[in-house]
Amino acid sequence: MMLCPICLADVTADSSVVDRHLNSLTDVCPMSGREPFTWDERSTRAAVPNRSGGRCEMCGQRATNMHHRKNRSQGGRWSPANILHLCGSGVVGCHGYFTSHPSVAYLMGVSVRRGDEPADIAVQTPAGLLWLSDDIAPPLPGWAR
């Protein structure tokens, strides 16, 4: 059994690779017949701690919360480019600080405005600029761990 590099589904031995490129996310995978992989809450919650090492991406303390850089109400998605792993909650720690100081959050890239694309705006951390991207490896399926 192998893992499809496009949709991350299991591909059986009788599946064959079709020599064509996917034109859009609505196409089905030529190997598995499934839709290509897209980030969702579950996969993002699994991938972001791997990126952060379980540490707050602002101060280095133990991270406890996922912060949407672009609010979900403004079209922000569950994807690694839009999520920072922070300590605290909406009222304490780094998450609380940036929630109660939105102008600082926008200035540092911790939050982005409705029309902005999170992957296009770096986060200013004490260690330097952090460019977040959706182009990180998604979590492996259970059988591959």
How many domains in all? 2
The count of helical stretches stands at 3
Radius of gyration: 18 Å
| Low-confidence spans | 15-25
What is the number of E strands?
A: 6
Major beta-sheet overview: 2 strands, antiparallel
Proportion of helical residues:
10-25%
What separation lies between the terminal Cα atoms? Answer: 14 Å
Average predicted confidence as pLDDT: 82
Structural class, judged by helices and strands?
alpha+beta
Strand share of the residues? Answer: 5-15%
Shape: elongated
Order of helices and strands: EEHEEHHEE
Strand line-up in the sheet with most strands: 1-2
Describe this structure in words.
The chain has 145 residues and is of the alpha+beta class. The chain has 2 domains: 1-37, no CATH class; 41-130, no CATH class. A hairpin with a 6-residue loop joins strand 1 and strand 2. The protein has helices at residues 41-52, 93-100, 102-108; strands at 2-3, 10-11, 65-68, 83-86, 123-125, 128-130.
Structural topology:
Blueprint: E1 2-3, E2 10-11, H1 41-52, E3 65-68, E4 83-86, H2 93-100, H3 102-108, E5 123-125, E6 128-130
Briefly characterize the structure:
With 145 residues, this protein is an alpha+beta fold.
Summarize this structure as a short list of keywords or feature phrases.
alpha+beta; 6 strands; single chain; two-stranded antiparallel sheet; 2 domains; 3 helices; two-stranded antiparallel ribbon; elongated; 145 residues
